[in-house]
Amino acid sequence: MYKYKLYIKTNISPEISERIMRIIRHRGFLIKKMNINVINKFKNINFQLIVKSSKPIDFLVKQITKLIDVLDIVIIS
């Protein structure tokens, strides 16, 4: 199993965290650690996630980037 660290920047919306968590679960990744910071000045949410899976991380990132409120994703393997 591989561990990946993801930094995800999104617009603030009530359902964005639920959608990201659902995609992670449906794609077979496990969340090992999660930190969420709301930055009101820029009206953004920054997610810092450590996920674990035997699947390639691109499989997950392609699905998350399809969400309308996602602005940026950085992967550190």
Question: How would you sum up this structure, described in words?
Answer:
This protein is 26% helix and 48% strand. The chain is globular, with a radius of gyration of 12 Å. The relative contact order is 0.37. The model has no long low-confidence stretch (mean pLDDT 95). With 77 residues, it is an alpha+beta fold. It has one domain. The chain starts with a strand and ends with a strand. Strands 2-3-1-4 form a four-stranded antiparallel β-sheet, with helices on one face. Strand 2 (30-39) and strand 3 form a beta hairpin. The chain is built from two helices and four strands, in the order βαββαβ.
Characteristics:
alpha+beta; 2 helices; 26% helix
Short recap of the structure:
The protein has 77 residues and is an alpha+beta fold.
The helix-and-strand class reads alpha+beta
- Helix fraction, binned, reads 25-40%
The number of helical elements comes to 2
Biggest beta sheet summary = 4 strands, antiparallel
Low-confidence stretches: none
What would you report as the Rg, rounded to the nearest angstrom?
12 Å
Quantity of strands, as a count:
4
Question: Which SSEs are present, and which pair or pack?
Answer:
Blueprint lengths: L1 E10 L4 H11 L3 E10 L4 E10 L3 H9 L4 E7 L1
Antiparallel strand pairs: 1-3, 1-4, 2-3
